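Re: weekly structure request thread

Next one in the queue (137 aa):
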Amino acid sequence: MYCRLLIMLIITFSSFASIKAQTINNQSVIHPNPRINDVLNRYITAVGGKALDDLKIVSRRGTLIRGNLGRVPFEMISKTGGKWYYKQIFAYGDVVCYGSDGKNNWVQDTREIRTMTDDEKNDLELILDIQLPLRKK
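Done, posted below.
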């Protein structure tokens, strides 16, 4: 949902809500009331800018440390076109997978495979979709 990304950006830049920096003669000049396009452009630049166009696939493996709840190994694969897959393996044997083929979104666990809710999709694509900032622009 575009609104969720917008809210995230507004929160991220809330401390800068009334200022906009511009460099003139190597000096930072503050301007009031940045435009939303300025905020989005700065966000896109911060996450990789046009280099995001060159990404085809990103793969990560690791372990989440959940305090007293233990360690949770995970695997994440993101591809262009809004395609991504995320898998967690819990200590008690449950496996939960989240995926998107760019059109359909699903959740698979030991009990079922179901369509992902819009809230789940929106939350996960913010983390897992490598080119989301470019498409949201």
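Residues 53-136 form one domain. Residues 2-12 form the longest helix (11 residues).
Next request, please.
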